[in-house]
Amino acid sequence: MSSYRSAFRPGLFDGQVVIVTGGGSGIGRCTAHELASLGAKVALLGRNPDKLETVRAEIEGEGGEAACFPLDIREEPAVEAAVAAVLARFGRIDGLVNNAGGQFPAPLAAINQKGWEAVVRTNLTGGFLVARACFIQWMADHGGSIVNIVADMWNGMPGMGHSGAARAGMVNFTETAAFEWAGCAVRVNAVAPGWIASSGMDRYPPHMRDIIRGLAEHVPLGRLGLEAEVAAAITFLLSPAAAFISGTTLRVDGAAPNFKPHWPAAKGKPAPEWDAFPLASKPSVLGEG
Ligand SMILES: CCCCCCC/C=C/C(=O)SCCNC(=O)CCNC(=O)[C@H](O)C(C)(C)COP(=O)(O)OP(=O)(O)OC[C@H]1O[C@@H](n2cnc3c(N)ncnc32)[C@H](O)[C@@H]1OP(=O)(O)O
Ligand SMILES: NC(=O)C1=CN([C@@H]2O[C@H](COP(=O)(O)OP(=O)(O)OC[C@H]3O[C@@H](n4cnc5c(N)ncnc54)[C@H](OP(=O)(O)O)[C@@H]3O)[C@@H](O)[C@H]2O)C=CC1
Q1: CB of 25 within 8 A of CB of 53?
Q2: Top-level EC class, please (predicted)?
Q3: Ligand 2, closest atom to CA 153?
């Protein structure tokens, strides 16, 4: 019996198979737990096999079913082989959570071609390759739902120019795929997290720690988001509740892009009303673990 307290009804994804890239940590791990708690069989994709295996064991320890498929999403043959392996193992693919991603912080002038391409391939090309493989190998004939995780980098993001460009590309890919693949009953949406207290926050260098700790002051809701709050948005978009939603990008950001400096954000980092995932990452940079 899963300890995950999903807002969605038990059994919602019974019999379904969902791929979660970047499923070995953070938002991907949390989403994998939520989907498994709702009955989905989860295919965990990521580079580090040990991280994937840990999450697989967690899910199976809670009564769910999962399997690991290590790969680098930037490598087309590996992506095609992993999707084929998911089909060989589970026999179908109903959903894809294109979550793997990340970047290194650097000003534009300090990013060389190799670095630019490493990040663009991670956050744009890789997502395209996984979506395309799922579409060609299964969804074109059987339908499905794809959720691409992007980032709240609207109007540019200093220090994240490579990632912001890739995420903008992924939003546009989402819009085009939603149209091209609609005739095959494939819905394609994106979720744009704002600042989320995930394991990812501990991957930034020490000189950024004070900046990260101060981010909540620029969020109208006065706090960072939870991994489970992103997972819930993803789960909604995968679910039948979103059957007429395709081509959209759902922001999960506490209204951060609406912040204006003449008006204070909510004070005191209010406790979330709903904390679905007791096992969520506790990023040390935020002093929570
Ligand atoms: C304002 C505060 C925070 C705001 C948060 C904004 C919202 C977003 C949040 C998140 O996304 S949380 C997720 C966090 N997780 C990560 O970011 C993952 C960590 N990053 C990585 O794993 C890697 O950077 C990568 C992006 C996946 C790329 O990995 P890869 O193994 O392919 O690359 P590398 O071999 O490490 O480097 C390749 C190449 O890139 C250049 N480069 C790398 N680091 C830097 C740097 N610090 N400055 C400039 N250039 C860099 C360089 O050309 C590297 O090649 P070599 O020189 O090593 O040959
Ligand atoms: N936390 C936040 O505030 C925000 C996060 N996001 C995005 O949400 C997503 C999840 O981030 P989060 O959980 O916070 O951070 P994590 O760093 O914990 O998760 C990123 C995951 O992506 C995987 N990954 C990265 N590159 C590759 C690759 N080339 N091939 C396969 N897997 C890869 C990593 O696995 P491995 O280590 O095995 O490679 C890791 O599990 C990312 O796309 C992130 O950029 C967007 C906005 C804000």
Answers
A1: no
A2: oxidoreductase
A3: 47
CB atoms within 10 A of CB 274: 10
**163 CA: nearest ligand 2 atom:** 45
81 C-alpha to ligand 2 centroid (Å) = 21
What confidence tens digit (pLDDT) does each residue in 50-87 have?
999 999 999 999 999 999 999 999 999 999 999 999 99
Residues in the chain, overall count: 289
Q: Compute, in angstroms, the gap from residue 22 CA to the centroid of ligand 2.
A: 6
Element (DSSP H or E) covering residue 56: helix 49-61
3-state class (DSSP) for residue 155: coil
Radius of gyration of the chain (CA): 18
d(CA 21, CA 159): 25
Q: Taking a C-beta distance cutoff of 8 angstroms, is the pair 160, 103 a contact? A: yes
Indicate yes or no: pTM above 0.95: yes
Sign (positive/negative) of CA torsion 181, 185, 186, 187?
positive
Enter the ipTM: 0.97
Q: Which atom of ligand 1 is nearest to the CA of 123?
A: 26
The two tokens of residue 208 are 């950024």
> How far away, in angstroms, is 166 Cα from ligand 1 center?
13
Instruction: Report pLDDT digits (tens) over 117-160.
Output: 999 999 999 999 999 999 999 999 999 999 999 999 999 999 99
